[in-house]
């Protein structure tokens, strides 16, 4: 998992509430358990005018030019602005996989569905909660935003906003540690346990 310290990027304004995980990555693309390859189908039903299926050549599909991610000024956005209850619906981990694979590192919204919120941290995404008044200001800003995880701040238009984050989740993001990385930190202890365990219970 990539480390997160600071990020400066244009923010893509997805001005929609109750964006569910089936909108983020539709169900027909859930056949793979790899974490990569989902970015091309992020928001598939909104990005394209036709119906998407696994294996299609997305470069030849008709684009919905009105959708925010298809506008040239947001092609390299690594920050996504959203409205209330982002990530609601089914608890598919493919949703943060698709967002991360597309290139997003930060999502800022007034609220998130609990399971989606937790899955973000496990996959290198930083979900930031801000109230509706702040969100209105960020949506209206339109220029690059700087996120400083150590300071827990958002800098936009010479204004600084703060955000809360659990200390352990902050440590994991700043050090790029996913669940596997956390386990591997104790690889020596695990090997010693296994060695002693099978000595004691040799019949197993």
UniProtKB/TrEMBL annotation:
It is an enzyme of class 4 (lyase). Residues 1-132 form the Aconitase A/isopropylmalate dehydratase small subunit swivel domain. Gene3D superfamilies: Aconitase, domain 4. It holds the Pfam family Aconitase_C. Its EC number is 4.2.1.33. It catalyses: (2R,3S)-3-isopropylmalate = (2S)-2-isopropylmalate. Keywords: Amino-acid biosynthesis, Branched-chain amino acid biosynthesis, Isomerase, Leucine biosynthesis, Lyase. It comes from the Bacteria. InterPro entries: 3-IsopropMal_deHydase_ssu (IPR004431), Aconitase/3IPM_dehydase_swvl (IPR015928), AconitaseA/IPMdHydase_ssu_swvl (IPR000573), IPMI_Swivel (IPR033940), LeuD (IPR050075). CDD domains: IPMI_Swivel. Pathway: Amino-acid biosynthesis; L-leucine biosynthesis; L-leucine from 3-methyl-2-oxobutanoate: step 2/4. Catalyzes the isomerization between 2-isopropylmalate and 3-isopropylmalate, via the formation of 2-isopropylmaleate. Belongs to the LeuD family. LeuD type 1 subfamily. This is 3-isopropylmalate dehydratase small subunit. The lineage of its organism: Bacteria, Pseudomonadati, Pseudomonadota, Gammaproteobacteria, sulfur-oxidizing symbionts.
């Amino acid at each position: 998992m990539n480390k997160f310290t600071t990020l400066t990027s244009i923010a893509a304004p997805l001005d929609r509430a109750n964006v569910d995980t089936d909108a983020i990555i539709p169900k027909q693309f859930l056949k793979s358990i790899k974490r990569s390859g989902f970015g091309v189908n992020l928001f598939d039903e909104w990005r394209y005018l036709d119906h998407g299926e696994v294996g299609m050549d997305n470069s030849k599909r008709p684009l919905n030019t009105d959708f925010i991610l298809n506008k040239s000024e947001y092609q390299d956005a690594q920050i996504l602005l959203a409205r209330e209850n982002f990530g609601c619906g089914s608890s598919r981990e493919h949703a943060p996989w698709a967002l991360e694979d597309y290139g997003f590192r930060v999502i800022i919204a007034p609220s998130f569905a609990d399971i989606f919120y937790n899955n973000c941290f496990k996959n290198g995404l930083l979900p930031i909660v801000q109230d509706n008044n702040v969100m209105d200001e960020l949506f209206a800003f339109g220029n690059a935003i700087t996120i400083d995880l150590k300071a827990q701040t958002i800098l936009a238009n010479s204004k600084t906003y703060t955000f809360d984050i659990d200390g352990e989740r902050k440590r994991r993001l700043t050090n790029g540690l996913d669940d596997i990385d956390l386990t591997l930190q104790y690889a020596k202890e695990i090997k010693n346990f296994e060695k002693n365990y099978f000595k004691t219970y040799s019949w197993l």
